[in-house]
TrEMBL record, chain A:
NCBIfam families: LutB/LldF family L-lactate oxidation iron-sulfur protein
Protein name: LutB/LldF family L-lactate oxidation iron-sulfur protein
Domain Lactate utilization protein B C-terminal: 405-475
Tagged with keyword Hydrolase: no
Residue ranges occupied by any LUD domain in the UniProt entry: 84-306
InterPro entries from the UniProt entry: 4Fe4S_Fe-S-bd, 4Fe4S_Fe_S_CS, FTHF_cligase-like_sf, Helical_ferredxn, LUD_dom, LutB/LldF, LutB_C, NagB/RpiA_transferase-like
SUPFAM superfamilies: 4Fe-4S ferredoxins (SSF54862), NagB/RpiA/CoA transferase-like (SSF100950)
Keyword Nucleotide-binding among record annotations: no
Organism: Actinoplanes oblitus
Positions of the 4Fe-4S ferredoxin-type domain: 324-391
Keywords from the named record: 4Fe-4S, Electron transport, Iron, Iron-sulfur, Metal-binding, Repeat, Transport
TrEMBL record, chain B:
First and last residue of the signal peptide: none
A Pfam family it matches: LUD_dom
Domain LUD stretches: 97-194
Identification of the protein by name: LUD domain-containing protein
InterPro entries: FTHF_cligase-like_sf (IPR024185), LUD_dom (IPR003741), NagB/RpiA_transferase-like (IPR037171)
Domain of life, source organism: Bacteria
Length: 475, 196
């Protein structure tokens, strides 16, 4: 019965959105051909980068805050069981109900059952990475329950039958004209003379969603932080859709990854400074809601907290990779990544794109299911510098590359190279052969198959006219 | 075996290398000099909130002028602040709150450095819903409620109360990163900063 304990389970296949249909290189090549996408992404990431660096520069203690944030997260991971049980106890004392979900299937079952019990056939949703990860919308729809995304970008994605492409701004790949067309095609009751002016588009969404907010009795949210010491949950947002969902309905169901727990109330003083500045480039996001259990006469009468594993314990088992669980989902690493900026989020295949996705997704699913993602990086290190909790993403990428099964041709080539380099005479011959290849005119055309897969995206340096050994011998 | 036992079992197994619980270095600033009301006003205005410095006896007429219609107030709002024609929240239905021109409340704390106002659902601030549905939110702030930094604000707040942190009006940047105010919450935030 306990044999599985030593082998932590990863996120189940066939459910949720952690695995793509195709490898990163293939998906990236397709994205690179889309000029509109690249223009939208370049504009968005450079704008956020600029805003973020301006407000970070205002804080003389930014590095001290990063150090504290990193240390708090490391502390959380080291005593996760104790903190989770403390959180459960505090939430329960304050009238909330805590559920534990080992994987996506169980979380979806719990939420679906809770919604059914209310008799509602519709839920309003706050944008949440955890519920996207487990494919909650699909599970609710299969159960005859309509999930309505209330974040503007998430609504654009939902109405467009699309997938999010960024953690913070899921519709970053769409421009205003595309958004107008999506609204005209899919938003019930939309004004047919809708223009593509951003305030007009936002007003259309406001009008459509107001009625839904006021008439839906159940809401589902994620959580940015859950405080063990007090049982308080926190959601940060901008639009007010979060406040609507968190305070208007009778029943609130919050799905939170187990890594989101923080020990004390005071710890928020670190993360509430790090998150908005790193994420949206604001000194503070427009709205933050904090609640502890239920408060009679104010807000939902029923509160359920679903604590989600879904592969997180597998990430925790890896001593190098576990720091990926420190992620506070700010998306700063996406905005500085030259690879993300050119390919966009869809190429990563998972709801977690960019550098953090390249380390988190393969660990949540098992590296064999996302084997190309650890290579979806140039290892330039910009993500490490940008991370507000100092996750060493490049080191985890390299660590994971060593766990990816290497293609037979590459293994054979590396073995042959090692053999040759161990034998001076053979090595000298090989160098001369390389020179011959140059004379034969292969320069610039890369290596012949199967080694061509290496040189298709890399320049093959031309061998020098004279090897070092020849030069030395001539002295 | 419950899912709780399964998850905690996996987590304990994952921590077999027994990483030491860490000391957290807290060398960041808890407060700093020079964070005065002017900094708060500057940050609020930067977020497109409107700020007026008023005497306590002019709160009511100023609020009435800003609202230009029905104002919802929480039951515990100081009587001196109440404009003549107000709708007191005694459990009002959402559609009545939404139909009001504005809501007028006090606040718990304000953070100068970030331009943030925190409501803690005390009687002079009321239920969370009343500051969410009207299009205009008028907040009255006493100078003594203003602190410099986020750490100072948290130290003053009670986590057991429902808390709403507000930094400017509702805003989105989801369409080509153009900031648009009032997607869902109040489109206008007015801060009345009391003298003395």
């Amino acid at each position: 019965m306990t044999t599985f304990l030593g082998m932590p389970a990863t996120a189940p296949r066939g459910v949720g959105h952690l695995r793509g249909d195709t490898t990163f290189p293939r998906a990236a090549r397709q994205a690179l051909g889309n000029e509109q996408l690249r223009r939208n992404l370049r504009h968005a990431t450079s704008t956020i980068r600029g805003k973020s660096s301006r407000v970070i520069a205002e804080l003389p203690d930014w590095q001290e805050l990063r150090t504290a944030g990193s240390a708090i997260k490391a502390d959380v991971m080291s005593r996760l069981p104790e903190l989770l049980e403390q959180l459960e106890a505090r939430v329960t004392e304050r009238g909330g109900v805590v559920h534990w979900a080992a994987d996506a299937n169980e979380a979806n079952q719990i939420v679906t059952g809770l919604v059914r019990a209310t008799g509602s056939d519709r839920v309003i949703k706050v944008k949440s990475m955890a519920t996207q990860e487990i494919g909650l919308n699909e599970a609710l729809e299969a159960a005859g329950i309509q999930p309505v995304e209330t974040d503007l970008a998430e609504l654009i994605v939902q109405l467009g039958n699309d997938r999010p492409s960024h953690i913070l701004v899921p519709a970053i790949h769409r421009n205003r004209t595309e958004i107008r067309d999506i609204f005209l095609a899919a938003m019930p009751g939309v004004d047919p003379s809708l223009t593509d002016d951003p305030p007009v588009l936002a007003a259309a969404a406001r009008k459509y969603l107001r009625e839904t907010f006021l008439s839906t009795r159940v809401a589902v949210s994620g959580a940015n932080f859950g405080i063990a010491e007090t049982g308080t949950l926190a959601v940060v947002e901008s639009e007010g859709n979060g406040r609507m969902c968190l305070t208007l309905p009778d029943t609130l169901i919050t799905v939170m990854g187990i890594e989101k727990v923080v020990p004390t109330w005071r710890d928020l003083e670190v993360f509430l400074q790090l998150l908005p500045r790193a994420s949206t480039g604001e000194r503070m996001n427009p709205y933050t809601t904090m609640w502890t259990g239920v408060t009679p006469g104010d807000g939902p009468r029923e509160f359920h907290l679903v604590l989600l594993d879904n592969g997180r314990s597998a990430v925790l088992a890896d001593e190098v990779g576990r720091q990926a669980l420190h992620c506070i989902r700010c998306s700063a690493c996406l905005n500085v990544c030259p690879v993300y900026e050119r390919t966009g989020g869809h190429a990563y295949g998972s709801v977690y794109p960019g550098p953090i996705g390249a380390v988190l997704s393969p660990q949540l699913t098992g590296v064999e299911d996302n084997a190309s993602l650890p290579y979806a990086s140039s290892l330039c290190g910009a993500c490490f510098d940008a991370c507000p909790v100092k996750i060493d993403i490049p080191s985890i990428l390299v660590h994971l590359r060593n766990r990816v099964p290497h293609p037979p041709a590459e293994r054979a080539a590396m073995r042959a190279a090692a053999y040759t380099m161990d034998r001076p005479r053979l090595y000298a011959h090989a160098q001369r052969a390389a020179k011959l290849a140059r004379i034969a005119g292969r320069r610039g055309r890369g290596l012949p198959p199967p080694l061509s897969s290496w040189t298709v995206s890399r320049d093959l340096p031309a061998p020098p006219d004279q090897t070092f050994r020849d030069w030395w011998a001539s002295r | 075996m419950s899912s709780k036992d399964v998850i905690l079992g996996r987590v304990r197994a994952a921590l077999r290398d027994a990483p030491a619980p860490g000391e957290v270095p807290r060398e960041y600033r808890r407060t700093f000099p020079g964070a005065d009301l002017d900094l708060l006003v500057d940050r609020l205005v930067d977020y497109r909130a409107s700020v007026r410095r008023v005497a306590e006896d002019t709160v009511a007429p100023t609020a009435a002028e800003i609202a230009g219609g029905t104002i919802v107030v929480p039951q515990g709002l100081p009587p001196a602040w109440r404009p003549a024609d107000v709708l007191v929240d005694d459990g009002l239905a959402p559609d009545r709150i939404a139909a009001a021109a504005a809501v007028l409340t006090a606040a718990a704390v304000a953070v100068a450095e970030t331009g943030t106002i925190v409501l803690d659902a005390s009687p002079d601030q009321g239920r969370r819903i009343i500051t969410l549905l009207p299009d205009v939110h008028i907040v009255v702030l006493r100078p003594g409620q203003v602190v410099a930094s986020v750490p100072e604000a948290l130290a003053r707040l009670d986590p057991a109360r429902p808390l709403t942190w507000i930094s400017g009006p509702s805003a989105t940047s989801d369409i080509e990163l153009n900031r648009v105010e009032g997607v869902h919450g109040p489109r206008h935030l007015h801060v009345l900063l009391l003298d003395g």
